[in-house]
Amino acid sequence: MPALQVPPGVEGFLSLVELPDDAWRSRWDRIVAPDGLKERLLNFVLFSLRHRARLDPVGLPVHGLVVLSGPPGTGKTTLAGGLADRAAREFGGSGLLFVEIDAHAFPSQLLGESQRAVARLFERTLPDLAARGRPTIVLLDEVEALAVSRAGASLDTNPVDVHRATDAVLAGIDHMARACPNVTFIATTNHEAGVDVAFLSRADAIERMGLPSAAAIEQILRDSISEVAKADGFDARALSALAKSCADIAAIGGVSDGE
Ligand SMILES: Nc1ncnc2c1ncn2[C@@H]1O[C@H](COP(=O)(O)OP(=O)(O)O)[C@@H](O)[C@H]1O
Ligand SMILES: [Mg+2]
Fold this sequence. Notes:
Blueprint: E1 13-19, H1 25-30, H2 37-51, E2 65-69, H3 76-88, E3 96-101, H4 113-130, E4 136-140, H5 152-157, H6 160-179, E5 183-189, H7 197-202, E6 205-208, H8 214-224, H9 226-230, H10 237-251
Helix pairs in contact: 2-3, 4-6, 8-10
């Protein structure tokens, strides 16, 4: 399928693609997640894309926002893309639009510019995309860089402009929730404590992806070396001992979570 072009002059889009795409299928299949997590995510996204337009925003305020939280390297970004591809397979017709926002694209030295750029994204660029009328998923990857917490220490260490940008994100999410029911947001964060609480409070669901268990590590090892593991003479029993020692190293803090 030919790649969609990011419209000229649009800032903050990392990519824009049409899904489903067979090359994306493994993003969903290969991520090993805790029991029930993938099913909950898929149910939420399908519910949000199909029914949000008909919900009463006072009686049942659904923003169309799910957050995936967990240490770096636990598969959040990959799973978000896989989820969009998997959801797209449930829609017939012309497919689903998936746009990835570059959360790091907005800091600016010019006073007020970050806030204006974020406002343009949520009040013009994304609504223009939604106006194509297709089911649309927007990935806010590493949202801690976009919706920076306004609490406590952050107020001392971040310039006030950063917090104005957070205000613009909140206003933007509210605007999109009202005006664009065909859009659902997936946000990921490596550092939930750094995300503004008002942003988190708008999430319809927050799913946490911790470090994988020994059983999950074993499955990931099996999947990733499946061809070798099938070969004669390969002792697959060694994998469970290896997975157990990986899990032990993670448990004693040998795996950095990047903080
Ligand atoms: N639970 C998992 N199951 C299978 N592969 C994983 C898992 N977690 C991470 N990976 C692999 O590790 C790599 C990094 O994952 P990524 O999605 O970038 O993590 P994150 O966004 O949480 O930092 C990817 O190649 C992904 O397929
Ligand atoms: Mg990531």
